[in-house]
Amino acid sequence: MDYVGYSLGARVGWQAARELEGRIRRAVLGGIPDGDPLRRFQVADARAHIEHGTEVDDRLTGAYLTMARAVPGNDLRALVALVEGMRGGSQPGAGNAPAQPLLFATGSEDRILEASRALAHAAPDAAFSEIPGRNHFNAPTARAFRVAAIGFLGSRGTTASRG
Fold it and tell me: Edge to edge, what strands does the sheet with 102-107 contain?
């Protein structure tokens, strides 16, 4: 099976590729940095917002909730629980990269661009695609992201530039 994930979905894909190596053939990991950016996420504030409509002051937490709410059918409680479960655990890094072919794709205007590019260079079989003019929140809807992902998944090897 092939996997495509963006941001938190890319982090889930990283772990799934490592733990299910025989089941995941290749993966597209969009908008993924190394380390644990989720440690700043305010779980209690997110839960209070979902339950009582309490205002969220933290920028990261607010942006996550806004993005998650924008997708019809998303279960915000489940997505907050996913963030909580992933914080502090095994994080993407050079020492634990999946062995499968990977395509990293990050927007040129995303603050994590260089961290994502570094992960691609550290992985044993990875390519990198920079999505022109896009940031973390609008990169997944870019035609360039879809074209790179489809091209990569349809190829025999990595297709994007290592740079």
Answer: 2-6, 26-30, 102-107, 126-131
- Tell me the CATH class for 2-36+95-153: alpha beta
Question: CB 77: neighbour CB atoms within 10 A?
Answer: 12
- Inter-residue contact 145 to 30 (CB < 8 Å): yes
Is residue 116 within 8 Å of 31, Cβ to Cβ? Answer: yes
Please tell me the distance from the alpha carbon of residue 109 to that of residue 135, in angstroms, as a whole number.
5
Q: Rg of the Cα trace of the chain?
A: 16
CA distance 27 to 30: 10
For the cut 90, the answer to whether the pLDDT of residue 143 exceeds it is yes
Query: Over the stretch 68-119, which tens digit does the pLDDT of each residue have?
Result: 888 889 999 999 998 888 777 778 888 889 999 999 999 999 999 999 999 9
pTM of the model: 0.80
DSSP state letter for 90? -
**SS3 call for 85:** helix
Q: CA-based diameter of the chain, in Å?
A: 50
Our separate counts of H helices and E strands in the chain read 6, 4
- For the chain, the structural domain boundaries read 2-36+95-153, 39-86
